[in-house]
Amino acid sequence: MRRRTTLLASCTALALALGATACGGGPVAAGGGGKSLSGQTITVAGVWSGSEQKNFQKVLDAFTEKTGASARFTSTGDNVSTVVGSKIEGGNAPDVVMVPQVGVLQQFAKKGWLKPLSRTAQQSVDANYASVWKKYGSVDGTLYGLYFKAAHKSTVWYSPDALDQAGVKPPKTYDAMLKAGHTVSDSGLAAFSVAGQDGWTLTDWFENIYLSQAGPEKYDALAAHKIKWTDPSVVEALTTLGRLFKDKQLIAGGQKGALNTDFPGSVEKVFGPEAQAGMVYEGDFVAGVAKDQFDKKIGQDADFFPFPAVDGGKAPVVSGGDAAVVLKDGKNQKAATRFLEYLATPEASAVWAGAGGFLSPNKKVDLASYGDDVTRETAKSLIAAGDSVRFDMSDQAPAAFGGTKGTGEWKLLQDFLRDPSDPKATAAELERAAAKAYQD
């Protein structure tokens, strides 16, 4: 997805120089200017590494160019809660954390670690974001988190050549998707590459099915553990997911192969030099791996269709995202506050959008900032969904249940992939794990 032409590079440079939102935009109120923070340094922590860290560095550099403040990024790995907690206890708290899970943001807020967003940043959120993003950034009515980077997790990526060879079109329903998968399989490739080694991908499968099948009210209730995981709606969604998991014709390498495939490997099985499957379900970030690792041209060699509707429900739009928060124990709260005000501007989003591998929930970001038509389409879909977007359910849960490798929902859905024969038993195990995590 992504590299924009020199026109975008010039546009971004012009925006930075003139303080414009994006090409054609008006002046940026937030973030300041005139290098008023020269000599100051902020530290930013987040889960990003590799190309994501490299591209976020461009945003940090743009902030430095605008304000004069230096910005250093530290990658925490997946266990952001543990790493940040230890840094706070050691008196070395970062100024800003890019929090990848609603549950972790809530945990930080309840421990008293966070500073509310400034009035300027709050005004930007009110004006430029659907209210659902304010909801997910707030705890007990106070807005702490600014969602800078979003993910569209309701996209099924496919090889156009594989579907053309099988003579199938992108499906509109879940049943049609499985039927198309059998046709792809009959043509010589497995239908789906499933990243079962990474439990988080399995939670995303479940969430899309559950949101479409059970509806948004049930989804919200389950995410808050206001209904139990033994609810019939959960069993029904697991049964629907199990139809895919138990069908060895549909999954590359069968269940065992899926359990030995991580996320990058699942993309490789579709878009790598030796294709083993025609489709892979995951978020818009699949495009980045396909392009950067396997030199695929997005929209030609790799494309997507929306996750299809299940049993007559609406097509789901599940999202994830990283929220910027300011820590009270950080050493430079003034510059950190200005940094979040900058992140709230379309200008900041345009920097990473031009680099690729990025979607913004900010409605004011010009779609022309994105480097290809497919990314523009996913960004447009995310914005158009408005308040019907639902945040990744596992990311809303306590980390012990929804965000820890080898335990909780991640492990139990891996167990279900291994043996999907008893959805009721799996639902009961999920409820036991959830009850403990939400109580703690």
TrEMBL record:
Gene3D superfamilies: Periplasmic binding protein-like II (3.40.190.10). Transmembrane segments: none annotated. Keywords: Signal, Transport. SUPFAM superfamilies: Periplasmic binding protein-like II. Residues 1-22 form the signal peptide. The keyword Transcription does not apply. Belongs to the bacterial solute-binding protein 1 family. This is Multiple sugar ABC transporter substrate-binding protein (Alpha-glucoside transport system substrate-binding). It comes from Streptomyces avermitilis (strain ATCC 31267 / DSM 46492 / JCM 5070 / NBRC 14893 / NCIMB 12804 / NRRL 8165 / MA-4680). The gene is aglE.
